[in-house]
């Protein structure tokens, strides 16, 4: 056990010190307030101030309480909040990742984030021919039709439809996240290399203000960084006929989502690994955070956008689904253990720990129970602590796959109490809360026999000590 714990400790130390994993984790954590703000915008326009009725069922509160529709004029504001947060997530993430890498390389000030955005923009297409845009319609054979196809079929002239400039939603939204991560890291590493070359620094006289002197000092490294990134993007397009964003999406992002994101076995394995780290005293969620955020946040954003536009929800599991079924009460789903202690425990020390842990546990904070019981290196309670998250995720996947639980569409603060989390995450659907209650009940049932065995062990140890 000591050898195993030592090896896990070394892996955990490496992950904790790896600047790329740390940068990705910190970037997503720092952007979280924005995505939650966007989720509130979606909740407002699609659940609260919404009177749409589909197949006789009200889709929002406005369908059953019409006075609330008096607030409909400000839906535009909440839609704008959703767009500038959720729909523009790649812009925010590339800037935050670049800032993290820049600081890790010794840079100070906000310029690394600005450079990250510029590097991303260099490889992102901004000019479009209107006739080449996909219309959303299909022909009789099921092939997608462009606006040009429709214009030609109607007898129009393509020359009548011009070009326009801007960033496509495909690139600034969730589908561009992997590009944002790669560019944010790669560009700042290139910049760091140039910054170490004294020959590239333009030295100004001492009389020049520090701000101006620094601007000239980083001028050449900045230009060369953008030039290198631009050439890479140009070469990729020249060789493949596709933009760098599209290559990364099809070659990296989509396969990872299909292999891990849509695979319940892979998800359960990932959480089991996280719990193994917890068992040796290492914060397991921090170890998997970079992978989890990179894969499951784009899936969450895709579900949110589909929900806000009334389309079919594409993904079974998202970032919030993992919290809903695999992290309620904190890592290890220890709220199940707390409830089991209140019902079955006969030891005052365990009941005292549970009493101290119940309020933090309701907000998914469980350090008091993890280190109070303790769960670390616990030969008995460590077993359910390891297994319950995977079981909860499997049950949640089953409930969602049969349609009992609605698919998760909104990001909810991780401190949101269970049941309320399930209700809000599924767009205000009561079945989300019911599904989470079922998973909590399963966790309690799993913890009960191990708790009883652990208390027998405790009593035996106490008798031997006497």
Q: Which percent range describes the beta-strand content? A: under 5%
Mean pLDDT: 85
Biggest pleated sheet: 2 strands, antiparallel
Alpha-carbon distance between the termini?
28 Å
Structure description:
There is one protein chain. This protein is mainly alpha-helical and 466 residues long. The chain has a domain at 262-465. The protein has 20 helices and 6 strands. It has helices at 2-17, 19-48, 75-85, 89-104, 111-122, 147-153, 169-172, 177-195, 210-217, 219-240, 244-261, 264-279, 284-308, 319-326, 335-344, 348-362, 367-372, 382-401, 420-425, 430-465; strands at residues 53-54, 57-58, 127-129, 134-138, 144-146, 163-165. Strands 1-2 form a two-stranded antiparallel sheet. It has a two-stranded antiparallel sheet with strand order 3-6. A two-stranded antiparallel ribbon has the order 4-5. Strand 1 (53-54) and strand 2 (57-58) form a beta hairpin. Helix 2 runs antiparallel to helix 4 (89-104) and helix 12 packs antiparallel against helix 18. The chain is globular, with a radius of gyration of 26 Å. The relative contact order is 0.09. The model has no long low-confidence stretch (mean pLDDT 85).
């Amino acid at each position: 056990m000591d050898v195993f714990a030592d090896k896990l400790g070394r892996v955990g130390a490496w992950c904790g010190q790896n600047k790329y994993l740390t940068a990705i984790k910190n970037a997503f954590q720092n952007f979280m307030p924005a995505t939650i703000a966007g989720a509130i915008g979606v909740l407002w326009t699609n659940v609260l101030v919404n009177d749409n009725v589909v197949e006789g069922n009200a889709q929002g509160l406005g369908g059953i309480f019409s006075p609330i529709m008096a607030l409909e004029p400000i839906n535009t504001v909440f839609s704008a909040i959703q767009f500038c947060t959720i729909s523009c997530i790649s812009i925010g993430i590339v800037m935050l990742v670049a800032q993290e890498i820049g600081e890790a390389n010794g840079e100070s000030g906000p310029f690394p984030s600005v450079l990250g955005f510029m590097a991303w923009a260099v490889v992102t297409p901004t000019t479009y021919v209107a006739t080449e845009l996909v219309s959303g319609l299909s022909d009789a054979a099921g092939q997608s039709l462009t606006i040009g196809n429709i214009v030609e079929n109607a007898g129009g002239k393509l020359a009548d439809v011009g070009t326009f400039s801007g960033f496509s939603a495909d690139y600034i939204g969730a589908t561009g996240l992997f590009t944002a991560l790669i560019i944010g890291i790669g560009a700042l590493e290139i910049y760091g290399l140039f910054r170490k070359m004294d020959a590239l620094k333009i030295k100004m006289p001492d009389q020049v203000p520090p701000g101006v002197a620094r601007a000239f000092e980083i001028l050449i490294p900045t230009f060369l960084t953008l030039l290198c990134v631009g050439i890479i993007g140009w070469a990729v397009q020249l060789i493949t006929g596709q933009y760098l964003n599209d290559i990364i999406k099809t070659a990296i992002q989509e396969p990872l989502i299909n292999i891990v994101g849509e695979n319940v076995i892979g998800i359960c394995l990932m959480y089991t690994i996280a719990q193994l780290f917890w068992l040796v005293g290492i914060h397991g969620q921090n170890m998997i955070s970079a992978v989890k955020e990179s894969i499951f946040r784009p899936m969450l954003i895709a579900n949110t956008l589909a929900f806000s536009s009334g389309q079919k929800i594409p993904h079974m599991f998202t970032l919030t689904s993992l919290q809903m079924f695999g992290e309620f009460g904190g890592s290890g789903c220890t709220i199940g253990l707390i409830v089991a202690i209140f019902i079955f425990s006969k030891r005052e020390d365990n009941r005292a720990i549970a009493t101290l842990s119940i309020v933090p546990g309701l907000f998914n904070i469980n350090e008091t129970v993890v280190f109070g019981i303790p769960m670390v290196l616990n030969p008995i309670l460590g077993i359910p602590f390891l297994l319950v998250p995977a079981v909860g995720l499997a049950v949640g996947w089953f409930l969602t796959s049969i349609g009992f639980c609605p698919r998760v569409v909104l990001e909810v603060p991780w401190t949101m109490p269970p049941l309320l989390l399930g209700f809000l995450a599924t767009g205000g659907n009561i079945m989300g809360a019911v599904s989470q209650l079922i998973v909590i009940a399963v966790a309690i049932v799993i913890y009960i026999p191990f708790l009883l065995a652990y208390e027998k062990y405790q009593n035996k140890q106490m008798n031997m000590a006497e």
